[in-house]
Amino acid sequence: MTARRQAIAHGASVVGIVGAWLYHGLVPKLWKVDADEQTFFRVIGLGPTATRRAVRATGVAEVVFAAVMAGNVRRRWPFALTLAAMPPLAIGAGVTDPKLLTKAFNPVSLNLVIAALAVVGLATHRDTGSRAASRS
Hints:
By secondary structure, the protein is mainly α.
């Protein structure tokens, strides 16, 4: 792969992953506090107020991670962390509310795509000198 193509693929993986973390933190968790996002917290026994707070806290964490990742695109760990997070997040969503798995837009399809983008990000990661290599 040429350096230009590698940079384009890496940039596309960054935009896709950061965009997903940002959107899913902002829209269904902070702005709307979607009912599907509340299910997990209700299942573990939180009341309505605590559930809304937990969903919002999760949204803040996702927005913060999106910002941290956007600032660390030359490092491998954000891609590795994203890749590692996808299976347990999809499984957790499916166990908590199996009906989610049959929706048109569901945790399996979303997390599979995000995991694939993380693999692309890891595969196209380039060290930019000894300083960058030591921080990876």
